[in-house]
Specification:
It is built from 18 helices and six strands. By secondary structure, the protein is mainly alpha-helical. The strands form two sheets. The chain has a three-stranded antiparallel β-sheet. Strands 4-5-6 form a three-stranded antiparallel β-sheet. A hairpin with a 4-residue loop joins strand 4 and strand 5. The longest helix has 26 residues, at 154-179. The chain is globular and about 75 Å long. The termini are far apart. It binds s-citryldethia Coenzyme A. Residues 45, 229, 232, 263-265, 267, 292, 300-308, 356, 358, 361-363 line the site of s-citryldethia Coenzyme A.
């Protein structure tokens, strides 16, 4: 196959280099297009447009494949924990025992957050959405980390990376406890990462909490499957903000704000609210499957469909299986899990969804596990942020390391009024 594509534009003919990736994906390099022709490409929502070359995560949407640094998500979910996964995404390799212990202990040692940030969290109304709280708290945290602000200083970036992975579970837990009217529980250096998060979330006022290994395993699994997903909306936002040489904390806050949207990470919260609405409507699944395809109704099946996956989202498969195991172990019947399964069955037999290749995505079943653990629904997207943090950090680092790194500044085709004068 030729390593160039030919473009004919009026009288002009232009050869575009074809970039071929390690999985044989092809990208047409249009970096010389405007200079040679004055024309640009247009691609609303970047459906067909690659923003970069990346060696972190590979997706094959047609075959439902997801790999972090070459390892299948199913393999990682079975053999690793979230700390291993963070290390893998940040360093490109799984840690050996010594690397893992040094990475893990460095994070645990930094899980406490300054009292000023705790005061900021307490300053929010208890009705505040925790995504608003954590985004503000991360910015506040950065003002206590003046020695971690330079995006071009490798040591400062390494400290900020470790500091963010360490602090986010604490900030997340405190945002929940504040809205629940509870006092804050300090992290315990004797506990692991997930164990600390669950304890800070659910301990009583004396800091007492009995850790359930099933919950720890389920939490690790959910964090792992959310850890990265190549150039999704929030990761692209982190790259975009970082490309202006904004500091790492500010870049991550950009990702948190993008993830909050119900079309993106906010779908896990929206999905459970949708399932509750169906439950309250006599479990009338067929009615909502019909609503979802009514063009005059902006209702969508939350947790369904994906820009890349045109096959079953491998993460949804992993989570659905974990739901079965956890609910069985806890001898729990969650009516929403039953409704989700019947909704999936009806939708996947309906031509509207089949024709559009709409399948359950990562957000469809995750809420069932969060509910079994006792996570309130408003915290679901915060948990998504906790999982996605290492992916955001890895992509930000890769963006800065790219030899072609420059500020992201797309073009447009102007369609407004042509030149005119004020009369
Ligand atoms: C995440 O990008 C990532 O990798 C994201 C993510 C990650 O890990 O970072 O995987 C996490 O964000 C998962 C997606 C969570 N969002 C939802 O579950 C919200 C519901 N789903 C959608 O709104 C939608 O499917 C998107 C946003 C996920 C994808 O949107 P696209 O690719 O822009 O597709 P589209 O909106 O153009 O839909 C194509 C067609 C349309 O119908 P037609 O105009 O062709 O007739 O499919 C229909 C849509 O109306 N459609 C749906 C639907 N999703 C798409 N119809 C009903 N219910 C849905 N959920």
């Amino acid at each position: 196959m030729s390593d160039t594509a030919k473009l004919t534009l009026g009288e002009q003919e232009l050869e575009l280099p074809i970039i071929v990736g390690s999985e044989q994906e092809r990208g047409l390099d249009i970096s010389k297009l405007r200079g040679a022709t004055g024309a640009i490409t247009l691609d609303e929502g970047f459906v067909n447009t690659g923003s970069t070359q990346s060696g972190i995560t590979f997706l094959n949407g047609e075959q439902g494949i997801l790999r972090y640094c070459g390892y299948a998500i199913e393999d990682i979910a079975e053999k690793c924990d979230f700390i291993d996964t963070c290390y893998l995404l940040l360093h490109g390799e799984l840690p050996n025992e010594q690397q893992r212990e040094s990475f893990r202990s460095g994070i645990i040692a930094e899980m406490a957050i300054p009292s000023g940030v705790q005061d900021l969290i307490r300053s929010f109304p208890t009705s505040a959405h925790p995504m608003a709280i954590i985004s503000a708290a991360i910015q506040a945290l950065s003002t206590h980390r003046a020695d971690q602000m330079d995006p071009l200083d490798a040591d400062q970036v390494a400290s900020a990376t470790q500091g963010l992975i360490a602090a986010l579970p604490t900030i997340a837990a405190y945002s929940h406890r504040h809205t629940a009217g509870q006092t804050f529980i300090a992290p315990n250096p004797e506990l692991g990462y997930v164990e600390n998060f669950l304890t800070m979330m659910f301990a009583d006022e004396n800091g007492e909490y009995e850790i359930d290994q099933d919950f720890v395993d389920a939490m690790n699994l959910l964090l792992i499957v959310h850890a990265d997903h190549e150039q999704n909306c929030s990761t692209s936002t982190v790259r975009m903000v970082g490309s202006a040489n904004s500091n790492l904390y500010a870049s991550i806050v950009g990702g948190i704000c993008a993830l909050w949207g119900p079309l993106h990470g906010g779908a896990n919260e929206a999905c459970v609210k949708m399932l509750k609405m169906i439950a309250d409507d006599n479990n009338d699944v067929a009615k909502y499957v019909a609503k979802a395809q009514d063009k005059d109704d902006n209702f969508r099946l939350m947790g369904f469909g994906h820009r890349v996956y045109k096959n079953y989202d491998p993460r949804a498969k992993i989570i659905k299986k974990a739901c079965d195991v956890l609910l069985e172990k806890l001898d729990l019947d969650d009516p929403l899990f039953e409704i989700a399964q019947s909704l999936e069955k009806v939708a996947l037999e309906d031509s509207y969804f089949v024709d559009r290749k709409l399948y359950p995505n990562v957000d469809f079943y995750s809420g069932v596990i969060y509910r079994a653990i006792g996570i309130p629904v408003e915290m679901f997207t915060v948990l998504f942020s906790l999982g996605r943090l290492p992916g955001w950090l890895a992509h930000w680092q890769e963006m800065h390391a790219s030899p072609g790194k420059r500020i992201c500044r797309p073009r447009q085709v102007y369609t407004g009024p042509t030149a005119r004068e004020i009369q």
